[in-house]
Amino acid sequence: MASLIETYEQQYATLTAEITHNINNISSTRGAIYSSCNTEKQKYVRQVEKLFDEAKELLEQMDLEVKDLTTDRQKYRTRVKSYQVELTKLETDVRRAKLGIDSSRDELLGDDTHDSEDQRRRLLDNTEMLDRATRRIEHGYKVTLETEQIGAQVIEDLSNQRESIQRSRSRLGEMNANLGKSSRLLSGMMKRIIQNRILLLGIGLILLIVIVVAIYFMVRDNS
C-alpha cells in the first residue's frame, strides 16, 4: 500500500514539474489578445488546466489509499495535505500568469499600464504571503492547543495512576500488618500447645510413678 502511494508521489512530482514549466511559458509569452502569441498562451493554459485535473485526481486517489493504511497513516496524510497546499499555490501562480494576457496591452497603452500591472502583481504577492502566514499561524495555534490538550490528558492519566499506586501500596501495607498479626497469633497458639503437651507429659509421668510405687507397696505387703 505504501509503495503504491510512493508511486503516486512520483507521478505527482512529474505533474507539478510540467505545471510549473507551463506556468513559466504562460508568463514569458507576450502579445496582444488576438495575436498569434496569445494563441500560444491559450495552448499553454489548456495544457496546464488538464495537468491540474490530473493532479487533483491523483491526490484524491492518494488520499483514499492513505485512509486504508494501518501504519504511517499520519505521515502520509501530512504529505497529502502539503501536496494540496502546493497545488493551491500553483493555481494561484496560474492566475497570476494569466494576467500576462491582459498586460499585453502595455504594447498599446504604454508604461503607466505596465506599472499598474506590476503594482497589482506585487499586491497579489503580498496578499498571498499574508494569507500563507495567517494559515501557518492558525495551524501553529491549532497544534499548540492540541498539544496542550494532550499534555493535560497525560498529566491527568499520570495523576490517576499515581493515586491507584498509592491505594495499592496502602492495601499492601494493611495486608502486611494483618499477616504480621496472624503470624504472632499463630506463634502464641503454638507455644500454648507445646506448653500443654509438656504439662500433660509431666502429669502422665507423675501418675506412672504413683502407680509403680503403689504396686511396689502392695507386692511388699503381700509378701
From TrEMBL:
Residues 1-97 form the Vesicle transport v-SNARE N-terminal domain. Residues 41-93 form a coiled coil. GO terms for molecular function: SNAP receptor activity; SNARE binding. SUPFAM superfamilies: SNARE fusion complex, t-snare proteins. GO terms for biological process: Golgi to vacuole transport; intra-Golgi vesicle-mediated transport; intracellular protein transport; macroautophagy; retrograde transport, endosome to Golgi; vesicle fusion with Golgi apparatus. CDD domains: SNARE_Vti1a (cd15891). It is found in: Endomembrane system; Golgi apparatus membrane. The keyword Transmembrane helix applies. Keywords: Coiled coil, Golgi apparatus, Membrane, Protein transport, Transmembrane, Transmembrane helix, Transport. Signal peptide: none annotated. GO terms for cellular component: cytosol; endoplasmic reticulum membrane; ER to Golgi transport vesicle membrane; Golgi membrane; late endosome membrane; SNARE complex. The chain crosses the membrane at residues 198-219. It comes from the Eukaryota. The keyword Protein biosynthesis does not apply. InterPro entries: GOSR2/Membrin/Bos1, SNARE, v-SNARE_N_sf, Vesicle_trsprt_v-SNARE_N. It is a single-pass type IV membrane protein; Single-pass membrane protein. Interacts with distinct SNARE complexes that contain either STX5 or STX6. Interacts with NAPA and, to a lesser extent, with NAPG. Identified in a complex containing STX6, STX12, VAMP4 and VTI1A. Belongs to the VTI1 family. This is Vesicle transport through interaction with t-SNAREs homolog 1A. It comes from Mytilus galloprovincialis. The lineage of its organism: Eukaryota, Metazoa, Spiralia, Lophotrochozoa, Mollusca.
